[in-house]
């Protein structure tokens, strides 16, 4: 994996645990309100529409459970769902009593599943499977799949709009935390403003800190203006502006809030870098199809691009007839 942060499992897990703790239903909350709509939502609805009562579904890398939520909407408790994720989860829609047919398993690595052989009729993952080791996870999927089971994956596409925005946001992350970026400028100006508010006259260093902050704000405005994906810059600008505006005679609270912001930006950067590193190009998805065909020669494998007006959104990958002893 290209990004060094990919090798730190606890940082990866924590970055997603923090994200899910916010209560968001899925990982593209800024692109899709509610659950997924458009071609991605339609593809899942079609895949799920004809599931017979009693079907056992395993959702890998489930997050706060957009696919279990959709299965509940379509089938209620007629379908049994086990939903695993490496991270800690907080699916606010899920009530243990009401949704007893849906079981969340946080802290579970899909490369090593805690389920018996031949346990599931359908295995799914939305923007999740591609984050793990493909060969080991496919071997686990084939092991826990019942004879004749099917696999449905929606995965990040190398050329999707989400990935393009992600690449641009990585540049914005780099600038925000660079020595001349906004965070460093805010670290410099907050103590200066606090001193002024405490009644001390500004010295030369204070003037320079204010100038550096103003320069960073102007540079951010220009970068946002020139960007097709300015949200990260604009949201960070607004948060920093509020912190700086409200600083009191003691800079402590504002400086602590700034470090909280820096930490959450670093987690967002990590998630974005991971998405880009995991996104599959055509040779990548062809290799995945070959690996599955080797592990499970009887499987009928297919894949296609999911696209709508704004361009390609994802890969849809499916395999029917998986499961150890399917003939
Ligand atoms: C982009 S989110 C997708 C979540 C959800 N399926 C959705 O559609 O919103 C990727 C998820 O994969 C999980 N993940 C990454 N590697 C994993 C692994 N090896 N095993 C299980 N989950 C993993 C992360 O914790 C994160 O929740």
UniProtKB/TrEMBL annotation:
Domain spans labelled Methyltransferase type: 58-151
GO molecular function: S-adenosylmethionine-dependent methyltransferase activity
Gene3D superfamilies in UniProt: Vaccinia Virus protein VP39
Pfam family membership, one: Methyltransf_11
Record carries keyword Ribonucleoprotein: no
Keywords tagged on the record: Methyltransferase, Transferase
InterPro entries on file: Methyltransf_11 (IPR013216), SAM-dependent_MTases_sf (IPR029063)
One of the GO BP terms on file: methylation
Stretches assigned to coiled coil: none
Keyword Methyltransferase among UniProt keywords: yes
Protein name per the record: Methyltransferase type 11
Source species taxonomy: Bacteria, Pseudomonadati, Pseudomonadota, Gammaproteobacteria, Lysobacterales
């Amino acid at each position: 994996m290209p990004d060094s942060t990919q090798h730190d499992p606890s940082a990866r897990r924590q970055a997603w645990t923090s994200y899910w703790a916010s209560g968001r239903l899925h990982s593209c909350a800024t692109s899709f309100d509610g659950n997924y709509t458009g071609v991605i939502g339609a593809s899942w609805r079609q895949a799920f529409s004809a599931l017979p009562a009693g079907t056992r579904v395993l959702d890998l890398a489930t997050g706060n459970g957009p696919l279990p939520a959709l299965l509940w909407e379509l089938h209620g408790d007629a379908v049994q769902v086990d939903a695993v994720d490496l991270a800690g989860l907080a699916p606010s829609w899920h009530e243990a009593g009401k949704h007893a047919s849906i079981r969340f398993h946080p802290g579970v690595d899909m490369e090593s599943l805690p389920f018996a052989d031949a346990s599931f009729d359908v295995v799914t993952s939305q923007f999740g499977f591609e984050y793990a080791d493909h060969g080991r996870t496919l071997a686990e999927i084939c092991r826990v799949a019942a004879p004749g089971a099917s696999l449905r994956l929606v995965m990040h596409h190398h050329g999707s709009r989400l990935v393009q925005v992600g690449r641009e946001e990585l540049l914005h992350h780099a600038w925000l935390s660079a020595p001349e970026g906004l965070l460093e400028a805010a670290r410099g100006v907050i103590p200066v403003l606090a001193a002024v508010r405490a009644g001390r006259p500004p010295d030369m260093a204070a003037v320079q800190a204010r100038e550096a902050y103003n320069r960073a704000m102007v540079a951010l405005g220009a970068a946002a203006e020139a960007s097709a994906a300015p949200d990260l810059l604009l949201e960070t600008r607004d948060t920093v502006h509020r912190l700086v505006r409200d600083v009191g005679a003691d800079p402590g609270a504002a400086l602590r809030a700034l470090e909280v912001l820096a930490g959450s930006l670093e987690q967002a950067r990590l998630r974005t870098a991971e998405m880009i590193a995991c996104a599959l190009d055509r040779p990548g998805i062809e290799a995945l199809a070959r690996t599955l065909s080797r592990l499970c020669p009887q499987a009928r494998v297919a894949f296609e691009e999911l696209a709508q007006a704004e361009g390609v959104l994802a890969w849809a990958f499916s395999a029917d007839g998986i499961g150890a002893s399917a003939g």
